[in-house]
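> tool_call: predict_assembly(chains=two)
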Amino acid sequence: MVEFSWAPRSPLEHALVTGAHGTRGIEAGVSLTEIRNFDLIQVMARRGKGAELAKAAKARFGVTAPDAPKAVQGKDATLIWSGPDQFFVLSAGGKHTLQTLVPALSGPASLSDQSHARVLISISGVKARAMLAKLSSIDLHVGAFLIGAAAATSMDHTSVTLWRGNDRPDGLAVFNLLVFATFAESLWHTLLDSAAEYGVAISHSEELA
Amino acid sequence: MAGAQTHRLGNGGLIDRSAPLNFRFDGKAFSGLQGDTLASALIANGVKLVGRSFKYHRPRGILTSGSEEPNALVELRTGARREPNTKATTAELYEGLEAASQNRWPSLRHDVMSVNQLFAPIFVAGFYYKTFMWPAKFWEAIYEPAIRRAAGLGRAAGVADPDHYDKAWAHCDVLIAGSGPAGLAAALAAGRSGARVILCEEDFVPSGRLLSDGGTIDGVPAAEWLPRTLAELAAMPDVRIMTRTTLFGVYDGGTYGAIERVNDHLPSPPEHQVRQRLWRIVAKRCVVAAGAIERPIVFAGNDTPGVMMASAMRTYVARYAATPAKRLALFTNNEDGWRTVETALGAGLQIAAVIDARADVSPAHRSLASKGGFPVLHGAVSGVDGGKDGVRKIAVSLTGGARAEVEADGLAVSGGWNPAVGLTSFHRGRPKWRDDIAAFVPDGAPPGMVAAGAANGDFGLGACLSQGFAAGAAAARDAGHNGTPGAAPVADDEAFSLTPLWHVAGKGKAFVDYQHDVTASDIELAQREGFESVEHLKRYTTLGMATDQGKTSNVAGLAIMAAVSGRSIPETGTTIYRPPYVPVAIGAFAGHHRDETFHATRLTPSHHWAVEQGAIFVDTGLWKRAQWYPRAGEKDWLESVTREVKAVRGGVGFCDVSTLGKIDVHGPDAGAFLDRVYINTFSNLAVGKARYGLMLREDGIVYDDGTTARLAEDHYFLTTTTAKAGLVMQHLEFCRQVLFPELDVQLTSVSDQWAQFSIAGPKTRDLLKEIVDPAEDLSNEGFPFMGAREVTLRGGLKARLFRISFSGEMAFEISVPARYGDALVRNLMLAGAPFGVTPYGTEALGVMRVEKGHIAGPELSGTTTAADLGLGKMMSTKKDYIGRVMAGREALIAPDRQVVVGIKPADKARRLRSGAHIIPKGQTPGPGNDQGYVTSVCFSPTSDRWIGLALVERGRERIGEIVHAHDPLRGEDYDVELCNPVFYDPDGGRQRG
């Protein structure tokens, strides 16, 4: 009998080359980090059950689920608005998988696993905004796109979910990007093209911070 | 060091004498200085002749010092980077720059095409419409190519641009166009108020005409005020000054287009940098401080090299310390022109004379003339004696009728100033006439936009500063910023007294539009021939249609039209202003989207594995799909595809079908919802089963098809075709949100969540048994045809199995979360090795579906009904669904519709091609007897012949009939037999087995 290995492979496994890219000899202006292991569950309220879902979500995550384009940090999870009466639950370490969330939320909501349908990329660095300005029509100015701001938008004709996470320890802003998995390699090359002039530091992390 | 810069002043100017730059013009070596433009460097080297005109090949020099330049167009750079029609007046000089003059042969000085001047009488306005009319067929073959060779501007590089461009967004409260005194004052006021400001400056240094004209601001010279002001602005974190950036367009909702020439000032962009960047700027308010353009006066010989706008002349002297002439005359109709005389005298140049068209000259200027020892002539320039070496003598018609001659090697001309009304007029605002300056000023600007300073017709330095400041403060306030702007910078206003003068009668060509060689007499002719409206005038004469869009010519042209048609200038009106304000390279609009990155691509979970296998890929929408997997020794695609088909039919193969659209349909009303969007019923589908579904458009035509499985009472998993995945999702969302809001149903696209493979062939079960947990029952009883459920794989991974078949073989589709797709495909190869498992691509998939008579994209063509496709029986009569009513329309149920039928060639060896038309045998092909066409063909390894599907009138009633296939595209005609579209296993025993 053959032994089968079931190692997951990121859609960026091929394209992502750890290290420096673009202009060398300067401190990289843009850091791109792919986060490889995460659970992402789409939660959509059933008809007329928005309030009930909000209550159930509050009980489960300890925070009120966003009712506007925002990302809210809850207990072991980030809740990211994705439309009226719907949000994503982003978590790590198996804390909120489809199996564990169904009992808690499936009364008032429909749930779909999207953990493999997206790639998660974290973008930061002194030139992160300059680089993102080439891809996004969203105003990411420090006073306009605050920590926790989120947008369901497009980059390079590709649908993405963009939100601002907590600042890095050095005070620089962090932008998180969820992109459809089958588009990820294509968008990745566009990200590199847009960031190359600033110098890019590329890495990946197995776990969601 | 090449060239002596004979026309460079010993001191002054904003050029760096310690940084010489070598360059070549028409192959000749010159040297210039850092801070030069190509134009100023040529002037510093005494070069007067820089180009030949468009139609008459007349020698031309440099007319202006800015982006309005009509004459000094050159081919910049060489090879793939060669860029025609580059304005020497805005091209920054860099070390090693190479430029060439255009539109001349064999050389700029000896251009044989200048004989065109002798034929000038036939090149008048509208000559295209009047000449070369006969014989008509000569136009394309002879006349047009000859004219195109003789006329025209520069040559395109002819090869791909090696540089990259990108596009970016910017956002601000206050966008300011222009960094002259008005723009800087606006930025100060808005910035101090706390607004986010973007200031776009076309030039490579900010400050606009302050660099050339100076002045006193807040009691100090401009040269002192400027660094202070720029430093204050630079210290404001939310004020961004973008030099080398032209605001070129105004779009809806406060969106603006700007082009940044990021690296045009270098021989080639540094590694990883772009050449140019297209900006889309979203601004709450916009202040147009784009200044004004000095306008020429139309007189005979006004295009002689050495005739230059007065303001440009003082820019070259003051800013670049370059002297266009040693002995200079000025022709002006206003006070401002005299500033050139002041600048020239200050630089030690000789003034030959001032020709002033006005009745009076101020006492101050009179005394300047007597001190400088030059005459002031009241009158107008009526002719210029000179040629390719420049101006020699100037003929003057004095007021009162006498004539005079002035010896000079340069003539500065000032006919007044036209505010730059482009940006304010791009939303169809019509500028209004102001008599005191004899010029059009902005009116009806787009919402949120105001003009200030010279762009608003107020030319004085004091007015520019105060208006700009007020506009900046108001814009910031309107955008919600209430900080204190502080005090406005203060300066005096210069006098600007002008007596309009547009055209001086005289012998010889008097040019209105230099770039398109439109003369005053062309305009008079247009009027005589009835093309009096300005829009007709423009098209008939091509006035204002060149790359400069008539920046120096339009107003003079319509003033002449007004005079000859007996109307006022405002009655004559202006043509419509349209973006872009300056030419923008197409490359900038494309950005990174060229070649392979023209659009985004989507990769399947097995993509990189397929690359390792050497698969050939086909673009399917955005997807890259494996088309076939060639093996060593196979001579063509057909051999590979045939092998793949035989391997599946005789053993087992698999194909990545992850590209199908996949949608989770959740909720208590999910079944009811599907009943409404599909023609068949899904609410009665048992959990654990799948069903083929067909959906119609509202008009009764088939929209899409696919299988849908019921995974739980309130959860269906719906699949779409690859092509329609996004559209079906949109359609279903529309149905859910708009048509049936009462249903409790939720939709989620899970297309990217699942890696899905079709495993097909008689040995499918053998392969699956290797990879699926032994506890799973895959027997016909345990997992019947159209079954669907979750299974456990060896190693514990959960997968979904669907017993569905597109190939007609015993088949399953298996899906796993997408990140396991790569592992699954490798494990399928391992598990299937004992059975000779063969990966197959979309070609083999297509062959097997044609053999099986399954419809796909070519049959779901947007013109076919369910009955046309042979699926009429699926249309439920027990419920309503989208498209039901309209599908019953007379034409859609007519008995003579073209329906899907199989075809095979009468000559068994013959190849079929899709697209061939079907006509009755023995008839002459023509629209009258066209009975349909071939939609899909393949070589069927199973039948060992080419087979196909066709849409044929009454096709199902004509099985067995021999018809004629007519293929005019490939020049082929042959007979085919209509047959049952199911060529393979018509009973379906294999897929159920």
